[in-house]
Design a protein that fits this description.
Chain B: Could be involved in insertion of integral membrane proteins into the membrane. Chain B: Keywords: Cell membrane, Membrane. The complex is a heterodimer. In chain A, 74% of the residues lie in helices and 1% in strands. Chain A is mainly α. Chain A has one domain. A two-stranded antiparallel sheet of chain A has the order 1-2. In chain A, 27% of the residues are buried. About 6% of the residues of chain A have low confidence. Chain B is mainly alpha-helical. Chain B has one domain. Helices cover 61% and strands 3% of the residues of chain B. Chain B has 5 helices and 2 strands. Chain B has a two-stranded parallel ribbon with strand order 1-2. In chain B, helix 3 links the parallel strand 1 and strand 2. Chain B is globular, with a radius of gyration of 17 Å. The N terminus of chain B is likely disordered. The chains are: A mainly alpha, B mainly alpha.
Chain lengths: 321, 131
């Protein structure tokens, strides 16, 4: 545990510093320093900072998604080559060729491992800060950048009558479970699970290409869609309310990003992509992705039944041709 | 794996115990990595920009090179796996000293990370059987 804490120490310091900074700003703006709402907003501020720092990663991913268009023909060839080969080695060989293909085209749809791994210590240290508040209060010490006075204030701050460091199961075991703690915890756990489930469900039902839907990992992912809420539900009864607030806020951010992606940058070949193309067509914008050849072919195919109708309003993308 | 061959004909109990203890850190890491690949990887879906993925790379590196060197290689790989890296193929350095002629003695992760080689091997043995 000592090794773990040593690694987490700088992260704990950063997390507590950001929260204190938000708390200071909010207090100067006239909010009550001792109020649980001020500290709740500080936690939300922490989420905003972390997620905003990750926006470049998100933008990078979206740009890569655009690049995916260009390699569709090569990808189709690769899929044809490995069609029906479901043994592990063939799957691996296909994955290997896919990666080489991405590199060749200078695009990669994956967000890389480092951003994901960097988020983990932040979450663990927030967990430690929030669950360590009561102990630090009784031991007369501060946490990270938080002074002891701020720790006391944080520990005693309540939101709807529950403290941010209260958690459902520990309170129950400690014999100090109140109705407010129970209700607030359960509401927050449900909010956390729902936001995650909806995001995941949206991705899987709307933003996956047909190839990915039939891929080898789909069964596993479908199972995870339902197992995950269970895992977080069980984990959630141990989470302090502050952590639940953090988790729900970050899920909502992800949901917003995902909504944007599904609406504006859907994965080629997915149901969302078809809807996107339909919307573009309705607006008279040129279709994305389809090469010039197929667009012209479509136009030719459509023209016979257009000939018979007079005064048909012309689509913008047809005018130039 | 098969280091007893190099140590001659007298594999004493002491030697076996020493070897077991020597491999404890490596085997703990292997268990942790396998658990991660079973439980956490499916939740996140693929995020890695390389082949083999970071966790597959780490598992091979630790299996082949042991806990210290393997961890060192893996850490450097994870740091390389950032959104601005080109990704692509990136095998574990200095490949395993394995018996390429008998795939059954090769750890599964090594096979999975070098699929082309072992697929060729598979086909070769199949055609030999057919002949």
């Amino acid at each position: 545990m000592g090794f773990f804490n040593t690694i987490l120490f700088p992260f704990k310091w950063i997390v507590s510093w950001i929260m204190v900074a938000f708390h200071d700003v909010l207090t100067t703006l006239g909010m009550d320093a001792a109020s649980g709402i001020t500290w709740t907003l500080s936690i939300i501020g922490l989420v905003l900072v972390i997620r905003a720092a990750l926006i470049p990663v998100f933008v990078k991913q979206i740009k890569a998604q655009r690049g995916m268009q260009a390699l569709q023909p090569d990808m189709k060839k690769l899929q044809a080559k490995y069609k029906g080969k479901t043994d592990q080695l063939s799957r691996q060989a296909m994955g290997q060729e896919q990666m080489a293909l991405y590199k060749e085209h200078g695009t990669n749809p994956f967000s890389a491992c480092l951003p994901m791994l960097i988020q983990m210590p932040f979450f663990f240290s927030l967990f430690q800060v929030l669950s360590g508040v009561a102990k630090a209060n009784s031991e007369n010490i501060g946490i990270g950048a938080m002074t002891h006075a701020q720790v006391v204030q944080f520990d005693e701050a309540t939101i709807f009558g529950a403290r941010l460091s209260d958690a459902l199961l520990p309170s129950f075991q400690g014999g100090n479970l109140t109705v407010t703690i129970a209700v607030l915890s359960i509401v927050m756990i449900l909010a956390m699970i729902a936001s995650q489930f909806i995001t995941q469900k949206q991705i899987m039902s709307k933003n996956m290409s047909e190839e990915a839907m039939q891929g080898p990992f789909m069964k596993q992912q479908k199972m995870m869609l339902y197992v995950l809420p269970l895992v977080f539900g069980i984990g959630g009864i141990n989470f302090p309310i502050g952590v639940l607030i953090y988790w729900t806020t970050t899920n909502l951010w992800t949901m917003g990003q995902q909504f944007f992606v599904i609406r504006r940058m859907p994965t080629p070949g997915s149901p969302a992509y078809k809807e996107y193309q339909k919307r573009r067509e309705a607006k008279g914008l040129p279709l994305l992705g389809a090469s010039k050849k197929t667009v012209e072919a479509e136009v030719i195919a459509e023209s016979p039944d257009l000939k018979g109708q007079r005064n048909q309003p012309q689509r913008k993308n047809r005018k130039k041709k | 794996m098969s280091s007893s061959q190099t140590q001659g004909r007298a594999p004493s109990l002491l030697g076996a115990v020493a070897r077991f203890l020597w491999h404890v850190p490596r085997n703990i890491l292997i268990i942790v990595l396998k658990l991660y690949r079973r439980v956490v990887s499916p939740i996140y879906g693929q995020v890695c920009r390389f082949f083999p993925s970071c966790s597959a790379y780490a598992l091979e590196a630790v299996t082949v090179h042991g806990a210290v060197k393997g961890t060192w290689f893996s850490m450097r790989r994870v740091i390389r796996c950032h959104p601005w890296s080109a990704g692509g193929l990136d095998p574990v350095p200095s490949p395993a000293v394995v018996d390429w002629d008998d795939p059954s003695t090769v750890p599964l992760i090594v096979q999975l990370n070098h699929p082309v080689v072992f697929l060729a091997k598979q086909q070769e043995t199949q055609s030999r059987k057919a002949a």
